[in-house]
Amino acid sequence: MAIVSGLAWGLGYFGQPHILARFMGIRDAALVPVARRVGTTWVAICLAGAVLVGVAGIAFFDTPLDNEETVFLGLITETMPAWIAGILLTAVLAAVMSTADSQLLVTSSALTEDVYRAYLHRDAPPRTLLWVGRLTTVAVAGVALWLALRGGTVLDLVAYAWAGFGAAFGVPLPLSLYWRRMTDVGALAGMLAGAVTVVLWNNVVGGDLYEIVPGVIASAVACVAFSALGSPPRRDFVTQLAEAEAAVE
Q: What residues form the membrane-spanning segments (predicted)?
């Protein structure tokens, strides 16, 4: 169960908006292979460093820490001079802020462009969109603060959010790109089924299995079932993209 749950974290990468935004904003599609190699290498370095910190903490501290998530901070303060420790602790805050601002910007942009502008005010002027984006950023930050104050470890919060995004968007996205029979109804059903399953599994069912596993399964079943009920689109997204690129050239 632990092995399956650990490996299932990889399923969440397909549905993380703050990660996909980097690929969407790339300057040229020809740079994607290079970006893939750089990104994979950097992730491997970060994960190896995290494992090394954990192993070093086990060897260094005679008694377990009250909060095992502070092992890096404890190693810094115990082994480094004060001025070096200050720089390294600042690096931790920088990493936190980097992820936080990415999440806030992606969420604010999605709510402003994909909800407010698409459904509420299609002809909204730029100034109105600017203020809507600012207000949604403050609102999302407030919700995040409320969730943080409820308690729990950082890993628990990250795992829950990772499963929610991964199960909701991780299946519909690749199917929309590469499966010709995928429909908009199937994509919406997959997003709803994945998100609801994660919430129910985490708060009602529980257990040792990571909630992203049943969430991804439910999302895949919903995508296929509801797409099969309707008529397939005339052209898949990849074909439309190729035709658009040919027209531009």
A: 42-61, 81-107, 128-147, 159-178, 185-203, 209-229
